[in-house]
Design brief:
The chain has helices spanning 17-29, 46-49, 67-75, 90-95, 108-127, and strands spanning 9-13, 34-38, 54-58, 60-61, 64-65, 80-84, 101-103. The protein is α/β, with parallel strands linked by helices. The chain has a domain at 19-39 and 47-57 and 66-84 and 101-108. The model has no long low-confidence stretch (mean pLDDT 90).
């Protein structure tokens, strides 16, 4: 597992300004090269998201589900973690069994560790595509 987020570019889908600023600082404090905050799905598309190494995805942005966008990220092999105030979400568990859900409010360590695990899973798959 990576020791830090050093050099990684992180996409953050979060519509609550204070949370977004806090998460951006947490990622930067852990070495992220860039953290791009998107508060509305109209601001980004999956092709633009491909320039990022990982994503933190709030399950709802402005009352709109981000699950379809999350599917596009995974199809583009962008590792992600979900962040949500809802800790019990059967749809997430069923559709995204390998994606961690970090419940809000979360600690910085929980979030960073989940991101590092997601990045490591992607690295493992690229090293051993058959396994």
């Amino acid at each position: 597992m990576p020791d830090s987020l050093n050099g990684f570019r992180i996409l953050l889908l979060e519509d609550e300004f204070l949370i977004a600023m806090d998460v951006e600082q947490i990622c930067r404090d852990n070495g992220a090269l860039e953290v791009a905050i998107v508060g509305d799905l109209d601001e980004i598309d999956a092709s633009a998201a491909r320039s990022f190494d990982a994503a933190i995805v709030d399950v709802m942005l402005g009352g709109v589900s981000t699950l379809e966008f999350a599917e596009e990220l995974l199809a583009a092999e962008i590792p992600l973690v979900f962040a949500s105030g809802y800790t019990s979400n059967d749809e997430l568990s069923a559709k995204f069994p390998a994606v961690e859900l970090i419940a809000k409010p979360y600690s910085g360590d929980d979030l960073v560790d989940a991101l590092k695990r997601a990045l490591q899973r992607r690295a493992d798959i690229k090293e051993n595509p058959a396994g």
